[in-house]
């Protein structure tokens, strides 16, 4: 794949440079399934069984790494919308949709996922630095449902079940509602997708005191309860156990309190590294992770308290996260194919 790069100017607004050939291919894919106004073309109705086998129930030939990654991404920062009425107040038919939110810096990732799915439209979300990938045609929704069904780990599975019920009734099909994924957290790409949505790699440094303190941590946070008052504690505990840490409630006095977990040991950080060596990140967090990994190497060698190493760590820290101004997207050249 040609090199994908993004530079950010001093005002922190990304300037994304993406090969014209890739963008044109994605636009062609989009308009094959949608009209110029983003509405589903009629031929999609004839394709609505494309992603189902003869029994209209099982997955066909999908790559489990892509499927589980997509599930984690949706459960981290996605929404499954199911209409509650057949028509709107203006008499228009209501349709379900699946939306995934991407940080403004992750536009290339949104493009490559759209390209693999061959469905969906990408729009800029007003008021915040984000893009939204929206899938709202029958064949696209059926494809995404078939991909993520069986890989869900959070209470968002109930929204998926509601969508499956809607599809079964409206389209007269028989999609199964697969149980929540209870496999080991390191058995697939779900956690990588969830981290790309909500994870944070940080280096903390206190050098003003006589004894400098350097920390290399990974953090995840999520609100304690979803909009249906279902707790997120269970799956958060699974991740915490895997990373040899614990879940802590934060912002408990706020209207939407959260759960947070942080790696607190070298053992926990290395468990995460071993996992990401198998199931990598794909968003701009991958770049922060690679810098974080350089700092972690100093901890492994017990060199993080040596003055010249501290200076090197600080130089790395000052180029991470919101301070990053250059983005290289070469790693997307190895992104998963949707099919095996």
SSE run: EEHHHEEHEEHHHEEHEEHHHE
In whole angstroms, the N-to-C terminal distance is 19 Å
Strand content: 15-25%
Q: Main β-sheet: number of strands, strand sense, barrel status?
A: 4 strands, antiparallel
Strand adjacency order, main sheet = 3-4-6-5
Low-confidence stretches: 7-59
- Which structural class best describes the helix and strand composition? alpha+beta
- Within CATH, the superfamily of the largest domain carries the name Homing endonucleases
Q: Which percent bin holds the helix content?
A: 25-40%
> CATH class of the largest domain, please?
Alpha Beta
* Cα-based radius of gyration, to the nearest Å: 21 Å
Work out the number of β strands: 11
- Assign the CATH architecture of the largest domain: Roll
* CATH fold naming of the largest domain: Endonuclease I-creI
- Can you count the helices? 11
Short description:
With 340 residues, the protein is α+β, with helices and mostly antiparallel strands. It is 38% helix and 18% strand.
Give the topology.
Blueprint (H helix, E strand, L loop, with lengths): L4 E4 L5 E4 L2 H14 L9 H4 L17 H14 E4 L15 E7 L3 H11 L3 E5 L4 E6 L2 H11 L8 H15 L18 H9 E8 L6 E11 L9 H10 L4 E4 L7 E5 L3 H13 L6 H16 L6 H11 L8 E3 L12
Antiparallel strand pairs: 1-2, 1-11, 3-4, 4-6, 5-6, 7-8, 8-10, 9-10
Explain what this protein looks like in three dimensions.
This protein is of the alpha+beta class. The protein has 2 domains: 5-171, Endonuclease I-creI (Roll), CATH 3.10.28.10; 198-278 and 285-323, Homing endonucleases (Endonuclease I-creI), CATH 3.10.28. The protein is 38% helix and 18% strand. The protein is built from 11 helices and 11 strands. The protein has helices spanning 20-33, 43-46, 64-77, 107-117, 138-148, 157-171, 190-198, 233-242, 266-278, 285-300, 307-317, and strands spanning 5-8, 14-17, 78-81, 97-103, 121-125, 130-135, 199-206, 213-223, 247-250, 258-262, 326-328. Strand 5 (121-125) and strand 6 form a beta hairpin. Helix 1 crosses helix 4, helix 3 (64-77) runs parallel beside helix 7 (190-198) and helix 10 runs antiparallel to helix 11 (307-317). The longest helix has 16 residues, at 285-300. The two termini are 19 Å apart. Mean pLDDT is 85; it is low at 7-59.
């Amino acid at each position: 794949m040609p090199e994908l790069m993004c530079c950010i100017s001093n005002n922190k607004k990304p300037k994304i440079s993406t090969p014209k050939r890739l963008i044109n291919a994605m636009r062609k894919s989009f308009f094959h399934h949608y009209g110029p106004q983003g509405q589903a073309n009629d031929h999609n109705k004839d394709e609505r069984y494309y992603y189902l086998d003869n029994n209209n129930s099982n997955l066909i030939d999908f790559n489990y790494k892509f499927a589980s990654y997509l599930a984690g991404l949706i459960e981290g920062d996605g929404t499954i919308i199911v209409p509650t009425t057949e028509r709107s107040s203006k008499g228009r038919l209501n349709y379900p949709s699946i939306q995934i939110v991407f940080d403004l810096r992750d536009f290339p990732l949104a493009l490559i996922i759209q390209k693999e799915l061959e469905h969906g439209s990408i729009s800029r979300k007003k008021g915040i630095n984000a893009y939204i990938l929206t899938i709202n045609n029958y064949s696209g929704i059926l494809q995404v449902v078939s991909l993520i069904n069986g890989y869900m780990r959070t209470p968002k599975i109930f929204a998926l079940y509601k969508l499956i019920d809607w599809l079964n009734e409206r389209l007269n099909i028989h999609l199964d509602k697969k149980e929540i994924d209870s496999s080991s957290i390191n058995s697939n790409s779900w956690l990588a997708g969830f981290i790309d949505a909500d994870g944070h790699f940080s280096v903390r440094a206190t050098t003003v005191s006589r004894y400098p303190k350097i920390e290399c941590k990974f953090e995840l946070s999520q609100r304690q309860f979803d909009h249906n008052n279902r707790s997120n504690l269970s799956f958060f505990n699974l991740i915490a156990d895997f990373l040899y840490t614990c879940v802590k409630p934060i912002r408990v006095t706020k209207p939407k309190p959260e759960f947070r977990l942080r790696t607190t040991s070298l053992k926990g950080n290395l468990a995460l590294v071993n996992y990401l060596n198998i199931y990598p990140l794909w968003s701009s967090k991958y770049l922060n992770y690679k810098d974080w990994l350089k700092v972690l190497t100093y901890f492994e060698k017990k060199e993080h308290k040596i003055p010249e190493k501290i200076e090197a760590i600080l130089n790395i820290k000052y180029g991470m996260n919101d301070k990053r101004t250059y983005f290289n997207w070469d790693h997307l050249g190895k992104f998963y194919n949707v099919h095996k």
